[in-house]
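Case study 2.
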Amino acid sequence: MSRGAALITSKKILAITNQKGGVGKTTTAINLAASLALADRTVLIVDMDPQANLTSGIGLKNNSLRDGTIYEALTAEKTPDVNRFIVPTGVAGLSLLPSNRNLAGAEVELISLSDRESRLRPLLRQVYDQYDHIFIDTPPSLGLLTLNGLVAAEAVLIPLTCEYFALEGLAELTATLQSVQAALNPELEIAGVLLTMTDQRTNLGQQVAGEVRNFFREKVFETTIPRNVRLGEAPSHGLPAIVYDVKSKGAEAYLALAREFLTADQRTSGPAASDV
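Prediction:
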């Protein structure tokens, strides 16, 4: 069996998660989603981080949102129509469930609400059939916002940097996922592990990449995401890297990831991976 065949990309709702910050979760959410949208897939990205980097990185931070954000949707007394909060982006086929700083208060407010760990799930189930893919960008912590993302998801996509401290967090990360699986979401699986900020010129980078592949084996994407200036610049312009500079190494890497993602997706009909 090839490595790609073992990736679980056929699950529709994926949480992009890692308890460690600065590993490329938001960058991956924006650029993988945009790459799939350019392959004629319909994609929803969900910003569950109070920093709202996903919302600003796609160019919608200062837009007027008539009905509010994910904060209002999560804390409503009764489950609202989530379509009221979803907005289109500048990429055809790509939509956003936005966030803003108000979401920081949700961690406290959710404590007193019923079903506090699972309020995102019914929202996304409302639009389950409207999208080919739904990606949830979770905060770099194990609070109620991240738990909501993990309970709503069918699988997780884990970005990992090729650095020493990434290895230290592997056991903690897998333990967290096992706890969520045991107590809150027994169907949760690992969709795949993505190596980010790679630099094959360094011995440490090669060593860490090797150890991650030994640990997760066939769950690791063949595609890796290199360190790239354009990936860092694009969010300041409110654009995915593939729109900002499609010829950059970062954009090319995420397009390759989308091709691998679609190739590994054994159960989803639609454009072939070669269309990306």
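Residues 12-262 form a domain with the Rossmann fold fold (CATH 3.40.50.300).
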